[in-house]
Write a structure and sequence with these properties.
mainly alpha; 8 helices
């Protein structure tokens, strides 16, 4: 009768160190994406582009006013419009330094009214550039586009969408922090398993 124990082969794969890959719980946490936050980011991008277009239009109008000497006051007015439009662009990035010193920009209704104000400033005094068809068309597109974004912001602010966004953003940040903590625990577990295997082999 053959000795079965002598032919028994113990796989060596069990002694290998586990692969460095995220756990299923980490993948599950990271796979969730909030459609509402994605929509808000896309809308913020559109609003920032509209504000940048207003900046471009007002800069061109100011240069033309100062260059031709047609109306110095219109040039100064356009410089103020550029400064406020830049503030709108910065507000859409939600840079905490700006939000900290201008709390009104944290609320969607206030942000929307500021955008409407910039749109009105951009559209003001159209008679000075009515002879320049391209600039007049660009002015109309930029002002009405930013006006639409501002109106949407005001309506959304009245419906408390800004509060919903801040709550969901806080939840998303908590979920990302939980995913980082899970990765750190997984990495630590693998390091401890590797140390145990080394001690067993010694």
């Amino acid at each position: 009768m053959e000795d079965i124990s002598s032919d028994t082969h113990i796989p060596t794969g069990y002694d290998s160190i586990p692969e460095d890959r995220p756990s299923s719980s980490t993948r599950r946490v990271r796979s969730r994406a909030d459609p509402f936050l994605i929509t808000c980011r896309c809308f913020s991008l559109v609003t920032a582009l509209a504000a940048l277009l207003c900046v471009t239009v007002n800069v061109l109008a100011a240069v033309r006013s100062f260059k031709d000497g047609s109306d110095i006051f219109d040039g100064i007015f356009r410089c103020y419009a550029v400064a406020i439009a830049v503030l709108v662009v910065v507000a859409e990035t939600e840079w905490q330094f700006v939000i900290k010193f201008s709390k009104v920009l944290e609320f969607w209704a206030g942000r929307g009214m500021l955008q409407i104000f910039v749109a009105v400033m951009t559209r003001a005094y159209p008679e000075y550039i009515s002879n320049h068809t391209e600039l007049f068309l660009l002015q109309s597109i930029a002002s009405y586009l930013l006006l639409s974004c501002g109106a949407i912001y005001v309506i959304s602010g009245i419906l408390c969408m800004g509060v919903v966004k801040r709550a969901r953003l806080k939840k998303e940040l908590s979920r990302e922090q939980a995913a980082k903590d899970l990765e750190e625990l997984e990495r630590r577990r693998q390091e401890l398993e590797a140390l145990l295997l080394l001690e067993e082999r010694v």
